[in-house]
Amino acid sequence: MAELCFPCLFPSPHNSAHLITFKHHSHGVQLKRIIPRSQKRRISSLGTPESKLLHVGPLESSNPRQKNCKFIVRSSSSVLNLDKAVERGGGEKCYYDAIIIGSGIGGLVAATQLAVKGAKVLALEKYVIPGGSSGYYERNGYTFDVGSSVMFGFSDKGNLNLITQALEAVGCEMPVIPDPTTVHFNLPNNLSVRVHKEYSQFIAELTSKFPHEKEGILKFYSECWKIFNSLNSLELKSLEEPIYLFGQFFKKPLECLTLAYYLPQNAGDIARKYIKDPQLLSFIDAECFIVSTVNALQTPMINAGMVLCDRHYGGINYPVGGVGGIAKSLAKGLVEQGSEILYKANVTNIIIDQGRAVGVRLSDGREFFAKTIISNATRWDTFGKLLKGNDLPKEEENFQKAYVKAPSFLSIHMGVKAEVLPPDTDCHHFVLESDWKRLEEPYGSIFLSIPTVLDSSLAPQGRHILHIFTTSSIEDWEGLSRKEYEEKKELVANEIISRLEKKLFPGLLSSIDFKEVGTPKTHRRYLARDKGTYGPMPRGTPKGLLGMPFNTTAIDGLYCVGDSCFPGQGVIAVAFSGVMCAHRVAADLGLEKKSPLLDTVLLRTLGWLRTLA
Ligand SMILES: NC(=O)c1ccc[n+]([C@@H]2O[C@H](COP(=O)([O-])OP(=O)(O)OC[C@H]3O[C@@H](n4cnc5c(N)ncnc54)[C@H](O)[C@@H]3O)[C@@H](O)[C@H]2O)c1
Ligand SMILES: CC(C)=CCC/C(C)=C/C=C/C(C)=C/C=C/C(C)=C/C=C/C=C(C)/C=C/C=C(C)/C=C/C=C(\C)CCC=C(C)C
């Protein structure tokens, strides 16, 4: 038996619509109540099936902790696990330790990490399934990954396998299929480079294309390894929590100093120290572009070090059944830890009381309260939409000066006849046909994922999935009539597919069995990301990662998580942001050690460092 008190969630019904039977909590008798249709929706969308509700009605209690509550819901369901809420609730408007807005990987990792530390968490997701850009959808027997299928941090070794660790924390383990080639680059001047999992094989292939730069290649990638090895030796937690940070400096001084040294640097500058060949430098740009949507001169060296080595250390591993399984497992794990996740829960406002974030309001009017609020919406959406009407804090103004929204993507999800792919086709390809200058231009380069090369269960027999995507801005898709929009989608998609047909797979156009095209508007609609942005990118040349904000915000009780937080775009990156956020929030909730004095000193120092970026 569980129960939950609400200050005024269920006011007395005025207009009848539904007859629902509840069991009266004090008399133990069946009670028939007529409640409006809208309230019925509220009750069922709380996550408790109607049949399991035992009572909804006025509270008749002499318990002083419940004196401000007007209504009570009792449920035999364990899904909501409400007992704790009563204990903490009772009119104090504080039912949860943390509310997470959004269930992308960033939000889910923060939620699950907090739940295992003993916090009572409520995750609110606008869409019908968890995962955001790491979600999935099914059509005609195909299971499509919404976004990327290149999974870093998903191996069984080291400290940087944050996806594996996040799943393990809630008792989940997913079988994976190792990808022998992270990506096959098809570049101008017929430069073809396969990034083999085996580091020596990759270096041999790259040096065979640039024999005169062998030394430069080795030196550049060795610097990447220095960073990776330092990162991999640390226990990863919040860099905004001084007891942990100083502890790491004490335990691993060399590694921490190495990271501090590289923190304000970019990959392109380091590459130029060793490499002179312009084509090889463009190759390094392409290496960086696929993980940062900008060239090497704008890509933080720490991020480059992380991804350019993890692919060889732990390797890229694809989850059996598709990427969507990761979010599903985390959401399941969250509930099993006694926390909750609600879908179709569109947060429209963060409620501020005396300068502190205390709750959220949904588009259907429901309100939820917690000691801390964590937003997995982008910083632009959090401060521009969920906090509209409030002044933009100086820190956010600085962030918006230093970072702009990266463009979105045009995505083509296709099912094709298997024969069209030559034997031994790689799973991931990056295509830029003739002109290096087009690397960062909209529709300039093409990303291609064929996850069925690794997991054939994702498509009907005799078929492959092709997920093709290319950068595109929302401005290109606005102001069109429905018909014009559909025609443009068809036209642009066919041009991209024809380019792939010419470069990689003759006969591709005529082998299509299923095709669906998403534009930046689709990304905006389904991922609730302003302009459908892929994430933040630096406005100019950044000082490495120095300017990237962590998880705390200028508003007390409000934290951000996801790709507009340190260290930026990428599933593994947002997973790290989730780990950091959960640690900082747990310290503020009293679930982890904290020192208020050191907190003030460190947070001020970090704020000051950001202004130098
Ligand atoms: N587009 C791609 O190709 C792709 C694919 C996979 C992963 N990624 C990576 O994932 C990163 C993003 O991960 P993330 O965790 O930061 O975010 P995300 O965008 O994946 O997830 C955010 C979630 O929050 C929900 N949400 C947003 N506003 C909401 C609101 N007001 N109320 C309720 N729910 C709301 C969205 O519906 C979404 O599910 C990107 O940087 C990218 O690198 C991208
Ligand atoms: C605090 C201070 C000031 C100082 C101190 C010092 C220290 C200690 C420091 C430390 C640091 C740290 C720990 C850091 C960390 C970092 C990290 C973890 C990072 C990470 C990163 C990652 C990333 C960036 C990733 C990314 C990825 C991506 C984006 C991906 C993508 C993919 C795709 C798109 C796909 C492609 C496809 C095809 C080709 C098809």
What does this structure look like?
The protein has 613 residues and is α+β, with helices and mostly antiparallel strands. Among the domains are: 1-87, no CATH class; 407-532, Guanine Nucleotide Dissociation Inhibitor, domain 2, CATH 3.30.519. It is 35% helix and 22% strand. It contains 18 helices and 25 strands. Strands 6, 7, 14, 15, 16, 17 and 25 form a 7-stranded mixed sheet that branches. A 7-stranded mixed sheet has the order 12-11-20-21-22-19-23. The protein has a 3-stranded antiparallel sheet with strand order 1-5-4. Strand 16 (356-362) and strand 17 form a beta hairpin. Helix 7 (242-251) crosses helix 8. The protein is globular. The relative contact order is 0.15. Nicotinamide-adenine-dinucleotide binds next to helix 3 and helix 17. It comes from Morus notabilis. GO terms for molecular function: carotenoid isomerase activity; oxidoreductase activity.
Labels describing this entry:
613 residues; alpha+beta; seven-stranded mixed sheet; 25 strands; 22% strand; globular; disordered N terminus; binds nicotinamide-adenine-dinucleotide; binds lycopene; oxidoreductase activity; NAD; prolycopene isomerase; carotenoid biosynthesis
Structural class: alpha+beta
N-to-C terminal Cα separation, in Å?
54 Å
Low-confidence stretches: 1-92
The dominant shape is globular
